[in-house]
Amino acid sequence: MLGILFITLILAGINAAEPLILKYVFDSLATDRLMRTLLVGIGILLGLGLFREAATALSNWMTWHTRLGLHYALLESTVERLHRMPLSFHRKEGVGAIMTKLDRSIQGFVGAVNQILFNIFPAILYLLISFFIMLHLNWKLALLLLGFLPLPAVIAAFAGPEQNRRERALLDQWSKIYSRFNEVLSGIVTVRSFSMEDAEKKRFLQDVHQANQVVIRGVGIDAGLGAATNLVVTAARIAVIAFGGILILDGKMPLGTLVAFLGYVGGLFGPVQGLTTVYQTIQRAYVSLDEIFSILDVQEHLGDAPDAKDVNGVAGEVAFKNVHFRYDQSSRMLLKGIDLQVSPGETLAIVGPSGSGKSTLMALMMRFYDPEQGAIYLDGNDLRTLKQGSLRHNIGTVLQDPLLFNDTVRNNIAYGRPDASSAEIEKAAQAANAHEFICHLPEGYETMVGERGSRFSVGERQRITIARALIKNPPILVLDEATSSLDAESEAMVQEALEHLMKGRTTFVIAHRLATVVNANRIIVLKQGLLAESGTHAELMRRGGYYASLVSRQTSGLIRNEGE
């Protein structure tokens, strides 16, 4: 940037010197050295032109280098922060809105910085140098021209508030448009199932049309303002010619001085018109920067303590002690005084109605949130004293919705351990009952899985995610409704794969389908945020409580959506 500004200073000096050379040429036309003067003037102009083009080319290259560097630095900061945002932020904003805001805000800010540093700053330099020279040449003409210079700035200041509102409205509108568009494409099966393709297309194009209308109205306003500014330039040029002509006729000023002034009028109002966009540019930068800092300023929901330590040699003992939790102060308490001790290698099943806090309990164990009261311990260490990345490295998850990235099968399995060998990947796939169907794929383990694994059935995706958890080899495992979306045949294969995965690990199994939890070492029932029951399947059935009633309803074929 310093290099660019130095070149800018030189270019401003060259541009300001050109009208002086024209003055030298025209003032010398009446002398006997006409040809010599003409040749010298043309030679100097040619030399300055060649030097200016070379310096401009170098400046442009350096400008793009700087612009891309700034863009990269902003992306680095914002993307890093997005990965560490509270989960609630991502749920609230939506993927499409975040990506659109991020892209447009960074592009807008980088463009504004580029204009301020590399267009407006040179304009200010040229303006100062030129006006100093004009005062020296003829102060009367300089003062006349000075009367016109503020007018473009007044016009721009008048337009600024409207341009600011327009810029912010457009940013919000495009964010909403692409947020909805992202949802539609992600749920394209649902859209087609309800024959809503045409309706969604109409809605999208109507929203785009409305955004474009805002742009068109803005362009109309800007065009009018540009015309008004051009009229000011024309009036200034005519005034200089008229007053300068009078001074020449009175013998008070040579012709070369008027030619030089006309050169400055042509070159001066370009920078002045550029300066009139300063307010608009700063407002655009402010809007963009405001959106960028809406990401950068969001505090990480949970940070590591300064003295947090790595997790090493995990045995797998987990303890919840008097854990209370709610997502925010305005919501109800989801967990109320949970006390729970889980031994290393134990399989604990967690059942209960929807909204009872089952998944929340696991989110707390993975430290996506901290308890409002109480604490959670791993092998006797409070989770708040451990590094989050190290903690989660020791926990494997298999979720109800198996997410695969649009990459190869091999890379999806090795996601948690990118350095895993081919033999380790295939061994994990075999243990997850996935190796056979992978080998029948057109490109085997190098087959691209499609967005979110769209090329595979739910059961196949689930077995790949089980292989992913296996190769990570975590001492603690969380199975959150891992078989609830599967048919009977797929469930049998996935259940067999899960049994391989669960061996020797502390396992938490969340399930509504109780057939998947009967073999757990212990079953707990969460109800209304409380630990209502605890015991083996046989013990809970003998007690005839809430768990027994759930089993009875499922085995009798009665399906009910349990409430609190």
Give a short summary of the structure.
The chain is built from 19 helices and ten strands. It has helices at residues 2-27, 34-83, 87-93, 95-137, 139-148, 150-186, 188-193, 197-249, 255-276, 278-296, 358-365, 388-393, 409-413, 422-431, 435-439, 458-472, 488-502, 537-543, 546-555; strands spanning 318-325, 335-342, 347-351, 373-378, 381-382, 395-399, 476-480, 506-510, 522-527, 530-535.
Structural commentary:
Among the domains are: 2-296, ABC transporter type 1, transmembrane domain (ABC transporter transmembrane region fold, Up-down Bundle); 395-473, Rossmann fold (3-Layer(aba) Sandwich), CATH 3.40.50. The strands form 2 sheets. The chain has a 6-stranded mixed sheet, sandwiched between helices. Strands 2-1-4-5 form a 4-stranded antiparallel sheet, covered by helices on one side. It has helices spanning 2-27, 34-83, 87-93, 95-137, 139-148, 150-186, 188-193, 197-249, 255-276, 278-296, 358-365, 388-393, 409-413, 422-431, 435-439, 458-472, 488-502, 537-543, 546-555; strands spanning 318-325, 335-342, 347-351, 373-378, 381-382, 395-399, 476-480, 506-510, 522-527, 530-535. Helix 4 (95-137) runs antiparallel to helix 5. 63% of the residues lie in helices and 10% in strands. It is of the alpha/beta class and 564 residues long.
